[in-house]
Amino acid sequence: MSNRKIESHNIHIDSDYINWITELKQRYRSAQVKAVVKVNAEKLQFNWLLGRDLVRKKAEERWGTGVVKQLSLDLRREFPDADGFSVSNLWYMEKWYCFYTQKEAVQKLQRAVGELERAKFMQNEGTLPSIFTCVPWGQHVDIVTKCHSIQEALFYIRQVVDKGLSRPA
Fold first, then answer.
1. Rounded CA separation 156/103 (Å)
2. How far is residue 72 from each of residues 55, 69, 75, measured CA to CA in Å?
3. CA dihedral 72, 73, 76, 78 (to 10 degrees)
4. Which one is predicted more confidently, 162 or 20?
5. Are 57 and 101 in contact (CB under 8 A)?
């Protein structure tokens, strides 16, 4: 990494300038965080829809048992710098979608999501509940692989959102 020289001009730096530059730095950092949150939300929406597609298309029945492996190869070939297209991750997308849309869980989830947000969750299965977008993908995977019920999963989602609960290192 090369050293960059930052020039300083011969100006009078007073408290107004210092306050202004401090405010600009805070606004920029805030914008960076908001951008990351929006990117995360869009990636989660993509994962949700891909999980839905795998279920709805009954991909294994239609194209054979190797379809998820082939899909992984095709997506990684097309998007070599992107992460998240491993075979196991594609299976997690399907599992995540199925976990929250299984018939027995739908009413419970509608009530629980309704308490968290007034969203029309199951009326449009393509729409990810907005509360889910506040949780990183890795935590969603942990939640659906370790939780046995919707109530338990939503408890952990609330912990992540309300208390900033993070994954163990």
1. 21
2. 16, 5, 5
3. -120
4. 20
5. no
